[in-house]
Specification:
8 helices, single chain, about 170 residues, mainly alpha, about 45% helix
């Protein structure tokens, strides 16, 4: 059973990375694409996706959330937001206070572009939180949209705020 779970997790990781090993156009290679993962860097994704069109294909997937927590550390998110997302010198990510809104599209764009570019693109502050500095653009650092969706999946899984404030 443990080996089977390892194979399933490994296969899902390969699919998310676009490395199924199957020829283009087969069911294995199209499933990652059908799930909304392009394998492109986040900045390329937001440059071509219409506002409001980005949705997390990993929503509710515990294995992807666990991978996202590892990526949260790998990309240094914990340096500002704390290891469990509860805040540090920057706001908590798990309390339900979404400064620019908490839908998937807005969160993906915020992390990719940073708060200053997000505001320049017409987004406005919807809620106040203790913020020491603007959110930097992490889009140039995060390798793929799959990695960013995994991080967002983990943030949602770690949420501990009021039930009515968890947006999707």
């Amino acid at each position: 059973m443990r080996r089977l779970m390892s194979v399933v997790v490994f296969t899902l990781a390969l699919l998310a990375a676009g490395c199924s090993g199957a020829p283009a156009g087969t069911a294995a290679s199209s499933s990652a694409k059908d799930a909304g993962i392009t394998g492109k860097p986040p900045l390329q994704v937001v440059a071509t996706a219409p506002k409001g069109s980005l949705h997390n294909p990993f929503d509710g997937n515990a294995e992807m959330a666990a991978a996202g927590h590892k990526l949260f550390f790998q990309y240094g998110c914990n340096g500002c937001h704390g290891g469990n997302g509860g805040g540090g010198m920057c706001p908590p990510l798990i309390n339900g206070v979404w400064i620019y809104g908490g839908d998937d599209d807005t969160l993906f764009r915020l992390v990719s572009l940073g708060s200053q570019k997000l505001q320049a693109d017409g987004y406005t502050v919807e809620a106040l939180e203790n913020v020491a500095a603007p959110m930097p653009s992490m889009g140039p650092l995060i390798h793929s949209d799959g990695d960013l969706w995994k991080i967002i999946t983990w943030i949602r899984s770690a949420y501990d705020g009021p039930p009515g404030h968890k947006e999707k």
